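Figure S4 source data
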Amino acid sequence: MSDSNRSSWKAFLRGISGVLFGIAAIAFLFGGRAMREFTKADWVLGEMAGIFIALICAALGAWAKSAGEEDINDDEN
């Protein structure tokens, strides 16, 4: 992969990590209430679903951030 493609992918991954962290924060703060309102689920189930979605988005955001900042030079191998 050329350097320009690699740098554009890195920029994309860094940007998407910010979006995923934002989704995780919103899901953590308001996800339980939204799950309860839209699905008429129990209070505990709605809160657990909101926290689960937040954890998944935070993990994906951390993965995207680390992949976007990775500096492995293929020429040295």
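Figure S5 source data
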Amino acid sequence: MEDMMKKRLLLVSAALLVILCVSAGVLTSPAAAEKPVAARTWTYLNLTTLLSPNWAWVVMPGHRYEFYRDNDPSRDAPGVPDTKETYFWEFFTGPVYIKKFGDLTLKLPLWYYYMGFPVNSTDKYFYSHNIEFLPIVEYKIDRLKLYNRVIFHNKVYAHNTVYTKEQYSGYSLLIREKFQVSYALTKEFALILADELFFGAIEDKDTKDIAKGEPFFAQKKFNKNRLYAGGAYKFTPFLNLSLQYVYETNYNPDNDGALTERDHYIMTTLTYVLKLF
């Protein structure tokens, strides 16, 4: 069993390296250079309260700030800022069921997710309400950890100036799967490499011909990829900091999957675990 898991871990690691090389090729291709590109910070504060050996509650606000944008014609109009500055607020909260089977850990979070999108014009603000179910499987082999997470992103409300009030309430489903490999160089510090795929599964039936894709209801088919590389440092068993570079590519499935934008993030996550038992 352990030999089989090691082989699978090596296969996943090799696949992530292939994705890294392909992404590097996309990043430097002439076609990619013509698309809009943005650079942003992405910050999370994660408070995880352990209520029992099997239950936890998570509260996690997030913020994204854009400090660079290029090749975007929509930013060239007079009076429109070159960057979106603060362009996204988010907030997660909800329970997590945890079950350990030796070196394998199963987590079943069910969270409420708020998404807020400031628009360049000060009189506009888009936001949405979502329900996230994200089963997570972790498997440890000595210093290696294999991680797989699938997010079922259920959007049930999208407030914006494009839909009518009757269209704010609806339903769409976006599925996000993340494969991650981490290696602990020391007891405190681990290296991280991951890839995340975005697939739209269900479009809202009343708005799919008006507007779709964030900040609206989900768009069908494969539409985004994120590559993560970085590390995490554990200050104490209950406090750790993760710093990662994220390379995001966006695609339009309604136009034969054409690349539409490339985004670069500096992602920081500070996590504090509060144990109550």
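The mean pLDDT is 90. The CA atoms of residues 118 and 125 lie 5 Å apart.
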